[in-house]
Amino acid sequence: MAKKKTKKEIEVEKELRANKRIKKIVAKKLRKSHELSESEVAYLEICMGALLQDNPKMPDKKLWIKAVEQTTKQMIKGFKNRLEKRFNEIKNR
Hints:
The protein contains 3 helices and no strands. By secondary structure, the protein is mainly α.
């Protein structure tokens, strides 16, 4: 017989599903606005997952999406800057 889940376990599962949805929403928005490749989006989803796990309780879903989106945009800037710097290093060899 299956063990009945506690309230805490059910709450954690709901939170994880919500976080997964937020990641998908933000990734979709960013893919369109920044013309990212699949691998870049996958990398950003991993980073967003870490962000969401650091702060599992979200006060407001829309506010949370904005916060994750802002942080991810900053990561994109850093990501693209590193790529450009690397490209220029290779080009100038």
